[in-house]
Amino acid sequence: MTSTTGTTPAAALGTWAWGDSGEVGDGYFGSQLTGAGLREIVEKAQSNGFTLWDTAVVYGMGRSETVLAQALKGYARSEYQLSTKFTPQIAGDGDDPVADMLEQSLDRLGTDYVDLYWIHNTADVARWTPRLIPLLQRGRIKQVGVSNHNLEEIALADQILGEAGFRVEAVQNHYSLLYRSSERAGILEHCREHDVRFFSYMVLEQGALTGRYHPDRPLPEGSSRAAVYNDILPQLQALTDRMAAIGEARGASAAGVATAWAIAKGTTPIIGVTKASHLDGLVRAHGIELAEEDIAELEALADAAGVDTRGSWEHER
Q1: Residues 148, 61, 109, 49: is their CA dihedral positive or negative?
Q2: How many other C-beta atoms are found inside a 10 Å radius of the C-beta of residue 295?
Q3: Rounded to whole angstroms, how far apart are CA atoms 257 and 111?
Q4: What are phi and psi of 241, to 5 degrees?
Q5: I want to staple 118 with a disulfide (CB 3.0 to 4.6 A). Which of 110, 145, 166, 232 is the partner?
Q6: What is the pLDDT of residues 83-131, one digit of tens each?
Q7: pTM for the whole structure
Q8: Domain coordinates of the chain in residue numbers?
């Protein structure tokens, strides 16, 4: 992906958790985020070359887009790239729901275009994809990506856009050491062959692969991720211990190793950032080069864990 800022950074920054309402007990991660804290994240990210921000309407139903725009205030539009999404499942009933949702996003983001606009989840590829073409022609969106699509759906979307001289420029799917369905389904190979950027989200499995958590130190109770991951932490112990050991030898954390793995696989990880210190780890991860035997060992340990972290919103690849 190119834009006024050049090529895509090695990692994109995810703002799903920025959609928290700020009310105690209502945070995705069991924490509260402040405007000052988010501004600190932005300043550190921008100064380290991490300038691609990924958000969506459904992240707090617009709140993530709004607070991201506030945190980016003062930066020239050419200094950062914006990635947001059309979600068919919440489409309105107007004449052009795609354009309507985009305009609302542009208003919240305080801009007149987005660098990368995604069809968030599959519903009816033939129905929604053509709606993107006029938006591309008018420059309201620079490039189109598809998220949570299987190989057949990616190909159909690409065919539809191709008839107007455009194409699917990016794919965004859940991809981690614990969940490699896009690799097994041939989607990564398709992206390599067609020079399509693959963005991997949930690389850290919402913290379960950071090495910070284990059976005696579970994820924060009351957060949605605790309900998903705490029961499988014992099965992940061998993997996260090995990730921590590999990281320690390279001056990085287990999370850095998980991120470095995703980069080594040819993907652009989308890393959720809720603290400025997360950027330090991301900078270190970018500098890690994993040997082929490291990658093979980690994948074998992940397979041996025998867990399925497919999200409720995902269909089989």
Answers
A1: negative
A2: 15
A3: 35
A4: -65, -45
A5: 145
A6: 999 999 988 888 999 999 999 999 999 999 999 999 988 778 999 999 9
A7: 0.92
A8: 2-305
